[in-house]
Amino acid sequence: xxxxxxxxxxxxxxxxxxxxxxxxxxxxxxxxxxxxxxxxxxxxxxxxxxxxxxxxxxxxxxxxxxxxxxxxxxxxxxxxxxxxxxxxxxxxxxxxxxxxxxxxxxxxxxxxxxxxxxxxxxxxxxxxxxxxxxxxxxxxxxxxxxxxxxxxxxxxxxxxxxxxxxxxxxxxxxxxxxxxxxxxxxxxxxxxxxxxxxxxxxxxxxxxxxxxxxxxxxxxxxxxxxxxxxxxxxxxxxxxxxxxxxxxxxxxxxxxxxxxxxxxxxxxxxxxxxxxxxxxxxxxxxxxxxxxxxxxxxxxxxxxxxxxxxxxxxxxxxxxxxxxxxxxxxxxxxxxxxxxxxxxxxxxxxxxxxxxxxxxxxxxxxxxxxxxxxxxxxxxxxxx
Amino acid sequence: xxxxxxxxxxxxxxxxxxxxxxxxxxxxxxxxxxxxxxxxxxxxxxxxxxxxxxxxxxxxxxxxxxxxxxxxxxxxxxxxxxxxxxxxxxxxxxxxxxxxxxxxxxxxxxxxxxxxxxxxxxxxxxxxxxxxxxxxxxxxxxxxxxxxxxxxxxxxxxxxxxxxxxxxxxxxxxxxx
Lengths: 384, 177
Fold this sequence. Notes:
The complex is a heterodimer of chains A (384) and B (177). Chain A is α+β, with helices and mostly antiparallel strands and 384 residues long. Chain A has helices at 3-16, 21-33, 39-44, 57-62, 67-80, 96-102, 111-120, 125-140, 150-153, 235-254, 274-282, 289-300, 313-318, 328-349, 361-364, 373-383; strands spanning 159-162, 168-170, 172-174, 187-189, 218-221, 231-234, 358-360. In chain A, strands 2-1-5-6 form a 4-stranded antiparallel beta sheet. In chain A, α1 (3-16) packs across α10, α2 crosses α8 and α5 (67-80) crosses α14. Chain A is globular and about 60 Å long. In chain B, α2 crosses α4 (87-115). The relative contact order of chain B is 0.15. β7 of chain A pairs parallel with β1 of chain B, so a sheet runs across the interface.
């Protein structure tokens, strides 16, 4: 998903869930910030690089894919963009290493989605925004894993777009970094085939280009791991479900709904706008920001400012060190570390080492990466 | 990274440094040894792909290609090992291609990092220039035994040092409920 959904559509979902214009803006800002909070950004504001929620292309190229590097990559991408659906999935006749990767395949309505929403419950608006990003991406990125793996994330030439009249046309992939997609002729940019299992080119949905990120497209292809079964990906329908689930989750976080259950979508608030939302989702365009923005402004009657990655940087940098965690960006950083810590812990506890070690503070005290002391301090502040 | 793996990585890295230093002292013998090693390494990669097919790629759509590549590499490796008396050519080709690819990657990284205003671009650029310099040295002194051996061994020492640094990094993440 892109800024159109993570920023503007999240704003719409927040307004429909009953949040004020100001809170909805904080929420959608945090949602979109997940795609921008790279190590480079964190270094520029003198914050801990361990709070990174994304990696730029340059950072990825720079990354060493040794064990520690791979674990770092997996922590970032599995925690925020490719939330694993089933950490205990059974794979007959497979080795442990293959099984570990298979279990990181992303999908909607997995137990970790509920854990993510529960983690944000009672927390900051920034935590809610991060949770919405993670939840929405489970719909866009399903069938791919947030760890470099050829055998999971590869796709072959068997890729077809299903057009509005139901006919099928082949999708062509080119490999020119930085080049734009030609959606009119179904020519898309994707990453180059690389034979190395752990190459950074085999991370996430790179081989399928930006297709999972476009809301209008319906396509079919063969996921590398699914035993030659064809997968039909209906993005408009999936994105609509994501929107309904976001509204429902946000109502839960706000306290309007008492319980968060998987596979439940808000129909009450969304239904009156179904045609409008579907018309945005099915419109053939790379970026639906202007349509979502217009819809959001109609819903709230307020103007939605464009996303500015540096909007809260000065407040964070100018705050005294002891007050930095209370600023907008400070709260985002704590929420991000908390989400990363939770997902890493769940992966580790499932016997899967791909995201690295996780230490339960309540059982073993503090060890490991010192920057995570921030979480301990925050937890103590909360309970005090 | 587990403690055992950290220890093994450090032991492996120390042995690599020692081995490289010894080879630098006896370049004439080193040439043949490295030539045979390159052949064995190719065969090793071939076997690695075959094992990769059996453990991973047999589940993948189109995974049989990997089995084929593994068999071919294994075959080339065995063939190269037999031709160890042409070690000079094998070593020069190996060193030149490795450093050429590395330099291209360094320049791409430097370009991307500079675009993103990351100060690390200068290091990438320097590494890229260093790699190109090694390629040029190899080609100029193609008839001399010492230069490719020295370059190959320096690369091994550099990788071993990076391995030690990576093994000493803290990696565990704390989970607070």
